[in-house]
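Page 42, continued from yesterday. The earlier attempt failed because a stray header line got pasted into the input along with the sequence. Redoing it now with the clean sequence only.
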Amino acid sequence: MTDSTVVRRHVPEAVRAIRVDSPEALGQVLRAARRRRGLTQQELAETLGASRDWVNRVERGRAPRAELVLVLRALASVGLTLSVDDGNALPDLDALLWQNDVDLP
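This time it went through. Structure tokens are written below.
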């Protein structure tokens, strides 16, 4: 598991964007947002017209052929958007935590 796929706690509330650089990291973000909204994998799947297994695989970063349209719908269903930038606009999580002097467990 790489640093970018580790779920971090105590992230400052001001963080509105985070760099997602792997299918696993995207899946963790989706899972966290789904849970925050109180949705089960089955409920999200029904909203998308997909199977619960598909949601499970995406959340685990194990859906290499996930249809982009469904991924975008899944993100929108839990209140997230996907942005693309040149890679320099968003600081990585470790830099944000260091700037805000946040200790991780």
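Notes: The longest helix spans residues 23-36.
Reminder to self: strip header lines before submitting.
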